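My main concern about presentation is that the manuscript never shows what a single data entry looks like. An entry of this sort, consisting of the sequence and the corresponding backbone structure tokens, reads as follows:
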Amino acid sequence: MIRLRSGAHTEGSESGDARETEQTEAKRDGKLGRQNDLAEPETKDVLKSHGDTRNINSDANLTGDSKSTPSADSNSFKYTKGSHKGLFSPWLWLCLKTVGWAVFIVYICVPTLVKTNPWIQGSIVFFNILRWPPFVDFTRPQDLGLNATRNLYLEHHNVRLGVWQVLPVSMAKGHLPSDDYFEQALGDIKPIVLYLHGNSGTRAAWHRVQLYKRLALMDYHVVIVDYRGYADSSGSPTEEGVIQDARFVYNWVKARSKDSPVYIWGHSLGTAITTKLASCLCKEGTPPTGVILESAFTNIREAAVNHPFSRPYTRLPGYDWIFLDTLDANNIYFESDKSIGDITVPLLMLHAEDDIIVPIQLGEKLYKIAQKHRPKGNPVEFISFAGSRGYGHKHIHMAPYLDVILRDFIL
């Protein structure tokens, strides 16, 4: 009896255990089914590629290990997904997007802005927005080592021009002389150099200051002007306006120079201003004693084509229409090649072979034009500086033999 009871209990227990096992498996199958239903479509597709999802779950039930197979399938899914995205990694996408945006900005946005806003080209040519060095007190040139120098302001046609006058080293005193002394000094027969700088920056730019110092040490007077819109000068620059400014300062110097020789020295964009000014003065019979052109070019269109900033665009269809014709819209020409033939006074041209802003070929071309069109008997000299010396566009002032060159030219 005990065995029968025990056997009945065992049979009932086994039957109950079987029912519990079936319920557990049913719950597990239902849970797994819900997980499969919630899985991403991409996951189901991958699983189906290895066999039917139901069969995989079935295999898991047959092995009795319900955890190992899903883990293996999950790893298989991750590997497949990772290998698919390896062709387009985040870094590659970032590089492609960066290049795409750069091309769009450089070749679409910039040309469109320049063509639809011609004033941009005018701003680029004069680039007076760049006032370097910053935080300069123009009333104190002594802070830059120009001890025998005064700051003054000259006004004409409602434009105020900032000007520096540097005394020759032989006339410098231990203290800053009076304004009357400065003005009277201009008539002491020592040579006077009116310096007309290029675009960007101010009369306080380092390379310009070094040239003033060198000329003063050669016992020359130096007068420097910031055109309208530059530094502490009022107004906005235009081609006609900056030439008027240069002419006004030249007349101011001539009114005080008496018998002192007056030379005009132009650099870069200042060479175009100098050439036009000297051409007009020669035609009117009031020429300067001589003209010095440093890093000169033929005209603004050729200068623009050869400028480093233009290189990405020169092969662009419609380059002339987009970029060069907008110069004409701003009345910016600076045609030194049309003016230099009218200069009848001695002419000295200086150019560095490694000048990348204004290539020496433009200076040589202007020199040949001057030789061809200037009246016979009026000397013109072109001096180049070896590229190995590294003078570039604005450091000819560092040439050790510059003094010899200038003394041969400036009487």
Observations:
- The mean pLDDT is 84.
